[in-house]
Amino acid sequence: MALVKLQTENFRNLNGAPVVFSPSMNLLYGENGSGKTSFLEAIGYLGLGRSFRVGRHQAVCKHQSNRLTVFGGLDHGLRDHRPATGSDSVGGEPLRATSFAHRLGFARDIVSKETFLKVDGEPVRSLSALAKHFPVSVIDPGVFDIVAGGPGKRRQFLDWAVFHVEPSFASHWQQCQRVTSQRNQTLRNGRLDDSLMRVWDGQYVTLATQVNEARTTAFGMFKDAFDALLNEVQAPWAVGMKLDFYPGWDTSQPLADVLLQHRDQELKMGHTLYGPNRADIRLRFQGRPVAETFSRGQQKTLVILMKIAQGMVLNSLGKQVTFLLDDINAELDAEHRATLAEKLRLLKCQVFITSIERPEPQSLWRDTMPDFKMFHVEHGGLTEE
Q1: What is this structure's pTM?
Q2: Burial class (CB within 10 angstroms; exposed 0-12, middle 13-18, buried 19+) of 165
Q3: Do residue 18 and residue 86 come from a single domain?
Q4: Which of 33, 36, 52, 331 is the most core-located residue (most Cβ within 10 A)?
């Protein structure tokens, strides 16, 4: 799926006018503060249910407004973007469109802290109902923490792909997190209730097994794609690069046995130390962590390859990913930008690229020029060129 129409209300400084995008490449440029990243944030809301820049919905809601809304019309992407009729609304002015395979709506009431979601005009309860139609992957300055940051960043990176590979994963992972929280509360009580602990352990082991199986399957697909990309990279570090999945415990033993063996340790710490909440993607070069051995430039290249590999996995499942590339000129040199743009063209992804300077498509796609639209961003509005 690709986003071909967007309309917002009370979203940062955006003027709210409907915008029609290309199902292929979209280039947005304008001065700092003009609204470039805000457009990407709004697009991201339809696939992520949140901002990729800040943690609070209130931060993206226009000043003195109590409700923000984002509407999106999707078509079948590069396979088909024929128009049809329809409209949608999530508590505000409708998004009027010509033809959509799906219509997505997100609204957030800042005062009541309620979220309202719609797919094809019908209310839905879970963000996964939106996300499954619209896989969104962000490449911005913060994404490089996947390598340099903690395990949580890499779990989040992996779980994005797991969700789109295995639809049941989201439910199992949410249940696992709830049971983990209950288990942690029991560990912190000071005096252990053995019978209650056995209950939580049993539920935790069952859910952890389901989560781990889904992650292992998706990681295997990801690693195959990543290794294929590495074979194409002309860099000395590509030869000694190793990428492995650590599930969060030593799987040579059943998780139930690991929990029993380390009960005293967990009681002392007051929280769960083994299981899917401790999973990680371990990145090593010649046996040492990449974060310690790679330069900043090498880390950037590695993260981009990892993102492309995710796109390859979803592409193999017949899903078109929408990539949001925010201010990549500040992070990547011309050669890396061209490599990334060409890889995404070959994957038939939908892409949004922002920059301060007016982009030069011929420098991004040097051999085969894809269909693209170019927009100038000014005062929260887009003008197509």
Answers
A1: 0.90
A2: buried
A3: yes
A4: 36
